[in-house]
Write a structure and sequence with these properties.
221 residues, mainly alpha, Arc Repressor Mutant, subunit A, Four Helix Bundle (Hemerythrin (Met), subunit A), 2 domains, three-stranded antiparallel sheet, 11 helices, elongated, disordered C terminus
Length: 221
């Protein structure tokens, strides 16, 4: 019998389920949801759902409106640009350090495994699964640099990164095999210690999926 003390609380369950609905795109930006809908879905009372909604509001995923429910906060163009700029900075810095120290075998093997998973997911057009593997691949680049502060900060971008990827790729799943090819090219550049080539390829890779990280460039300025 499972230890009751180790079971997730009703509030945590409601939080996890609602957050996954948002990040996966099942509840897109602008969607109106109620405490009653989530309570019925996870078979709990409204009180823990209210607690979960407050937590998601603090994470800027929901905007609460008394007597109306909650609205899923869309990813704004400015937020998307901020996330891309931070990713570029952290991954370029990681590549520079890897060029000096070499890519650890452990991380090379893990990235190879993630590439194989991406190709399998691309074959069945599993956008949500691919977005998970995509985030893990890029995070592994930063982890390979052994900069613990950079890893900690990069990890905080994970939810936004995954949500942006699903939003960008769901309308065009045919891009998934191309992304896997681009990831393989990035890995090859890391293995060769070509940090300048990596930086250029990374910018092209992210821009092709998400648009320019520079709002002025993205808007034609």
């Amino acid at each position: 019998m499972a230890d009751p003390a180790k079971r997730p609380s009703a509030a945590h369950t409601a939080y996890t389920v609602t957050k996954e609905l948002i990040l996966s795109g099942e509840l897109p930006g602008g969607s109106l949801i109620s405490e009653g809908e989530i309570a019925e879905r996870v078979c709990v009372s409204r009180t823990p759902v209210r607690e979960a909604f407050l937590r998601l509001e603090s994470e800027e995923l929901l905007a609460l409106h008394p007597k109306r429910g909650a609205v899923v906060v869309p990813v704004s163009p400015g937020e998307a640009a901020d996330v891309l700029e931070l990713r570029l900075a952290l991954e370029r810095s990681a590549a520079e350090r890897i060029a000096r120290t070499g890519l650890p075998d452990e991380h090379h093997a893990r990235m190879r495994a993630l590439l194989a998973r991406q190709r399998a997911l691309a074959e069945v057009a599993d956008v949500a699964g691919f977005a998970d593997a995509d985030e893990a691949f890029h995070r592994c680049i930063v982890e390979a640099s052994a900069n613990r502060l950079a890893v900690r900060f990069y990890t905080t971008l994970g939810d936004r990164q995954r949500r942006m990827s699903i939003s960008a790729l769901r309308p065009r799943p045919e891009r998934l095999p191309l992304l896997a090819d681009e990831h393989e090219a990035l890995l090859d550049l890391l293995r060769r210690g070509d940090d300048a080539g990596f930086a250029s390829a990374l910018l092209g890779h992210l821009t092709a999926t998400h648009g320019s990280p520079n709002p002025a460039v993205r808007d034609g300025g």
